[in-house]
């Protein structure tokens, strides 16, 4: 694949090591050629670094298997998952999960990514229901088009929500971008 095709969460082979794309940004400076600025995390060492790819650079995507697994519990240094078909259990370290760890709750079924039989991370669902634990009260006369306000969810994640969202309300969020989508019905 080419550098223009990389996305957040992908695993690539970079300089012989597995690296996960943590962030990326397409950039076209003036009359120069397009490039992709990416923040990568080496899955073997845990080191994070930035690299600039030319848009037409060839990139080797790592062959990743995914299995549906159910999140069970955390023991302080790792998170434990169970395969929903074979009931086999695996553990994934806090570092390998990164920001995804804060969205895990008991019984959540997610796709766990494997490379050569070793778990390397998870793919969160596109949307998750979450309850607002704390936010500022609604200001009279505020409309949906006015600025957003911070809201702390029960899992501790802070997202920006419209002014009409109140404490105790359930909302739908995008866990990858920590972004409010809509009120839960």
What does this structure look like?
The chain is mainly β. The protein has three domains: 3-61, SH3 type barrels (Roll); 65-123, Nucleic acid-binding proteins (OB fold (Dihydrolipoamide Acetyltransferase, E2P), Beta Barrel); 128-183, Beta Barrel (OB fold (Dihydrolipoamide Acetyltransferase, E2P)), CATH 2.40.50. Helix content is 2%, strand content 50%. The protein is built from one helix and 15 strands; from the N terminus they run ββββββββαβββββββ. The strands form three sheets. The chain has a five-stranded antiparallel β-sheet with strand order 4-3-2-1-5, with no helix packed on it. A five-stranded antiparallel β-sheet has the order 8-7-6-9-10. The model has no long low-confidence stretch (mean pLDDT 86).
